[in-house]
Amino acid sequence: MLWVVIAEDRAGSGNLRGDNRGAHLDWLAASGDQIVRAGPFTTDDGSAMIGSMLVVDFPDRNSVEEWAGGDPYAIAGLFESVSIQAWKEVIRPD
Question: Per-residue b/e over 2-35, b at no fewer than 16 CB within 10 Å?
Answer without folding.
Answer: ebbbebbbeeebeebbeebeeebeebbeebeeee
